[in-house]
């Protein structure tokens, strides 16, 4: 099956710093990638849709200036959490769309902001 | 707007019992997809099944079975003869045919006790 990786798998950063999370489709090309956020004991909420070569589309309530998404190639999308604060601590999961309806999820990145 | 509801927050069963996880969705779309995912403590989402709105056939895969009923907008998941390894959070999700975005239910935490 298709494989999606995320790096790092976990990260601890200080409040006010920025953190970049990478999402890679290892054995297929993904024109569309999605970023989800999951707070402890909650469901996954879509943050944004990332399309290769174009600007990301953010869901309502998600600050696009805080969560910068870049999808520069068909196999890589990055999410940068700028000026992170403790409330940004969460589990961030990406998925890559292989075809019309099939999505493959990465293993997730656990972000802790101290 | 589309919505997915998993009314059962937590379920606890004893090993070998059968258990059904409920999922109800709301939509006005005529074409859509429904999914079930398993999220073990590691956090990585495990794909279980995808169903499109035109296929109401029930499906069985080993100890897992799914019952899709458009008349009641339900897509329930049954585990037969549950095992401790089935302990996880299970998510039901919806996707319209053209966006690929997944809308997740709140999740059901299943605990299978030995």
Shape of chain A: globular
Q: Percent helix among the residues of chain A?
A: under 10%
Task: Count the E strands of chain B.
Answer: 12
- Output the structural class of chain A: mainly beta
Question: How many H/I helical runs of chain A?
Answer: 0
Describe this structure in words.
The complex is a heterodimer of chains A (114) and B (114). In chain A, strands 2, 4, 5, 6, 9, 10 and 11 form a 7-stranded mixed β-sheet that branches. Chain A has a 4-stranded antiparallel β-sheet with strand order 1-3-8-7, with no helix packed on it. Chain A has no helices and 11 strands. By secondary structure, chain A is mostly beta strands. The model of chain A has no long low-confidence stretch (mean pLDDT 93). By secondary structure, chain B is mostly beta strands. In chain B, the strands form 3 sheets. In chain B, strands 2, 5, 6, 10, 11 and 12 form a 6-stranded mixed β-sheet that branches. A 4-stranded antiparallel β-sheet of chain B has the order 3-9-8-7, with no helix packed on it. In chain B, strands 1-4 form a two-stranded antiparallel ribbon. In chain B, strand 8 and strand 9 (74-79) form a beta hairpin. The A-B interface holds A 32, 34, 36, 42-46, 49, 91, 93, 95, 97, 100-105, 107-108, 110 and B 33, 37, 42-45, 47, 50, 52, 91, 95, 97, 99-107.
